[in-house]
Amino acid sequence: MTPTTTDAPPEPLRFSFLTLFPELLLPFAQEAILGKAAARNLIDVQLVNLRDFAQNKHLKVDDTPYGGGAGMVIRVDVAERALASLPPADEVILFSPAGPPFTQAMAEELAGKRHLAFLCGRYEGFDARAETLVTRELSIGDFVMMGGEAAAACVLEAVARLRPGVLGDPQSHQMDSFSSGLLDYPEYTRPPEWRGHAVPEVLRGGNHAAVAAWRREQALARTLARRPDLLARTSLTPQDSAALLALGAGDEQLAAWGAPPPPAPKRRRSRSKR
What structural domains does the chain harbor? Predict the structure, then answer.
């Protein structure tokens, strides 16, 4: 008798956050969907307090900058000891304004890893030599925050939700904004009419093909109106090109976006006279 085999469950994706304020990230790791994912061993979030590696009586992890200036700098030897306490990581990521902007494509790439470690800075950031300890730097935008914990929470949610089993509907994230390259189409639920605004009739008619076509057109319309820059990074179809032209886009814009020509209009067959 041939023994039956069962597929072993996938290993959880481990997130290790090295921070001076682990309590700021704790709610994101324990509540809502991520908390349920952790309970089901789909993700593993480890919060590492940098002060545990200070090696001094006052748990001091920072010092004044060489050359003078305002603020304090987190010591590189503290960061090194904290990272050495972890299992080997596929990526060690430093939140930094010098890093490239975090994108959905990066989230999808990171979701395929096994262990991600993040250095969350405070004050004037880490000693510049900490850059030798990391595999990449990331930024979540051109603005200044007081620390890397909020950025870490953004990346945690964006990456963890892509792991199999974390979301209830395994296809739901595929239709989100940026996953398809476009902004998401508008969503509606009850009541069917509110303050003179009715749910579009096509969504209530039960014609799935018509709904899909409407949603694609709405996604194109929203992207054209609000984030036309995204269209240059989207795989557009000839039908998309026709829809964009109907929405007011010009031929020059289609060419700049690398869009294919719209379908040629169908010719009517002329009836032969007898």
Answer: 13-160 (3.40.1280.10), 193-257 (1.10.1270.20)
